[in-house]
Amino acid sequence: MKTYTIYLFRHGLTKGNINAQYIGHTDYPLTSGGIEQLKKIKAKHHYPEVDAVFSSPLKRAVQSAKIMFDGAEPIIIDDFIEYNFGEFEECTAKDLENNEDFAAWLHGDIYARPPYGESNAEFAQRVCSAFEKVVSGIIKTNTKTSAIVCHAGVLMTILSCYGLPEAPMAHWQMDPGYGFELRITPNLWMQANKAEVCDTVPERMKDLKD
Fold first, then answer.
1. How far is CA 96 from CA 23, 88, 102, 114, in A?
2. Which of 3, 59, 112, 206 is least surrounded by CB atoms within 10 angstroms?
3. Which of 45, 55, 92, 93 has the alpha carbon at shortest distance from 75?
4. Which CATH number fits domain 4-209: 3.40.50.620, 3.40.228.10, 3.40.50.1240, 3.30.70.20?
């Protein structure tokens, strides 16, 4: 049975990650420590060989993709950009602890949004639309192995919407430089828009438990 493999990787560390800020569209590059961390992961575990690399347009994702995949020029997917946090951008939860809009957003439904940002529903819709286009493209072009390098929120949305076993977003958290392997089976994809989550990458799940 013909299958396609898509690796989902979170970008390396930025100063926003280190400072625990909400960083969406702000175009932070990787820190020097983030670059070294990716190189160490690559030296120890090796990122997989792939036929195509897709990336968010932001520097932190493009830089990470080039490190992980030996200078590859990633195909930029604009809709894989991180969540638009609006007025919450570059703030920490501590900064916003007395902000009524922040409390409402944290406890809101999928239509909740930060002031001047996007709603959870809008974010999920654009990410899912972009992912479905990528899957359609790799099937049409018979691209057997590919990677998507972008942001935790984007990848967790993809996994919670399409992954088997089914699980909520919080289940799919990943560290910088790590991610998950998806197997796309055309029949399953066409019938149910689902993909099998095979393992963690670049380390296998069993290795993480040792």
1. 14, 8, 6, 11
2. 206
3. 55
4. 3.40.50.1240
